[in-house]
Design a protein that fits this description.
By secondary structure, the chain is of the alpha+beta class. The chain has a domain of 45 residues. It has one helix and two strands. It has a two-stranded antiparallel ribbon with strand order 1-2. The mean pLDDT is 78.
Length: 113
């Protein structure tokens, strides 16, 4: 009885998962071969029909002409903000005034028509 239970545990936890893993590996290999079969067949046709000459791939035509567009030059601009604080003492107490310089605008946009 103990041997039968041990055999069932061995089958359930070792043989079945191992069999599933082997089957999955076989399926992956088969799918990979099917997926690459077209490439291998095309290679065979090109090498047999071309003889000893190397087949040169055709260049694709660009969709946008290189003469279209314009060059835009960019320039790095360092943006600085300076804050000045002045404190004055008067008869009514202390007054603090803060002056902040405006930031430098780094780009001016124009609408191109």
């Amino acid at each position: 009885m103990f041997g039968f239970i041990l055999l069932c545990i061995f089958i359930a936890f070792i043989v079945i998962p191992l069999g599933k893993a082997i089957w999955r590996g076989y399926q992956l290999q088969r799918n990979w071969r099917r997926a690459t079969e077209g490439f291998r067949e095309a290679y065979r046709r090109n090498t047999s029909s071309a003889g000893n000459n190397q087949a040169t791939p055709r260049r694709k035509k660009k969709k946008i002409d290189p003469n279209v567009g314009e060059y835009v030059a960019f320039e790095e601009i360092k943006v600085e903000t300076t804050t000045y604080t002045a404190t004055e003492s008067g008869p009514e107490g202390t007054t603090t005034t803060t002056y902040t310089e405006s930031q430098i605008e780094d780009a001016v946009w124009e609408e191109i028509k």
